[in-house]
Specification:
Length: 281
């Protein structure tokens, strides 16, 4: 099956109008932004909404700006815009360079990628490492959820019917280092495994650290056990290796055509060491 089921289509002029439509249809409505994830699912009849609410032209959700000590990213900012924007933490540029290809990065949106909640999504790991927050709005309410709590399972999020992810907020911690390491079968492909790190050092000792992991069954795209181990320890290769083993032990990769589970755990351990080395350098 390669033809979507019948669906009604609306293109509201404002965010308020979009939220009104979504609230009216509840679970039977889906928001359409770039469409690179939703349209293929509709063609395969894996998604069959009654209403598509096209928010792709809502310019009020398309921005990247610094607000005090946070980076605010509108949900409709594209991958290409995040890659090119000045002042964006390096982990996002590193991650965006290995996401898909230039055509997809020009149309795909940041909010759409996170809302898809694909278990191999690169940006989910990058935002988890940066300890970002998600701003969610409904017709008559708004709430803020840590990105580490946004995904509740494969292709599932905390979004309720009638709600939209409108913004990502990334704390800017001053002088930090970061690294994003990915292994894939070919350029632009989904990860076999990928690890992102954001870390701060003081006199060679790790102060704060965030480790994001994707494609290997890590709960909420992060490994807090490895972060807890590293905090307050010297930035040495021995400690990096120990953190890598902890990260691998707390992942639950599924064997598939991309490789067996043991190989993916090995990748997690090795990529954690590489990302930590880059971040702390």
């Amino acid at each position: 099956m390669q033809v979507p089921a019948h669906v009604d289509y609306e293109r509201p002029p404002t965010l308020a109008a979009a939220l009104e439509l979504l609230a009216g249809y509840g679970e039977q409505a889906r928001a359409l932004a770039g469409g690179h994830s939703l349209i293929p699912m509709m063609k395969l009849r894996l998604a069959q909404p009654e209403l598509l609410v096209d928010i792709g032209r809502l310019t009020e959700l398309r921005y990247i700006r610094t607000e005090r000590d946070e980076l605010a990213i509108g949900a409709l900012a594209t991958h290409a815009e995040l890659l090119a924007a000045p002042g964006v933490p390096a982990i996002f540029r590193d991650a965006e360079r290995v996401i898909a290809d230039p055509v997809v990065r020009s149309w795909g949106t940041i909010g759409g990628s996170l809302c898809q909640a694909d278990p191999s999504e690169d940006l989910s790991a990058a935002f988890a490492a940066a300890r970002a927050s998600a701003v969610i709005r409904g017709r008559d309410h708004a709430r803020v959820v840590p990105v580490r709590e946004f995904c509740t399972g494969p292709y599932q999020t905390v979004l309720e019917p009638g709600e939209l992810l409108t913004e990502l907020r990334v704390p800017l911690r001053g002088v930090t280092g970061s690294g994003y390491e990915k292994v894939a079968r070919r350029v632009g492909d989904w990860s076999l495994a990928a690890v992102g790190v954001v870390a701060g050092l003081a006199d060679g000792v790790i102060g704060h650290v965030g480790i994001g992991v994707t494609a290997v069954g890590a709960r909420q795209f992060c490994v807090p056990e490895a972060e807890t181990f590293l905090a307050g320890r010297p930035a040495t290769i021995e400690n990096f290796a120990a953190a890598g083993r902890i990260a691998a032990d707390h992942c639950d990769p599924a064997p598939d055509q991309r490789g067996p589970a043991d190989y993916k755990r090995h990748l997690v351990a090795e990529l954690t060491v590489r990302a930590l080395t880059r971040a702390c350098a």
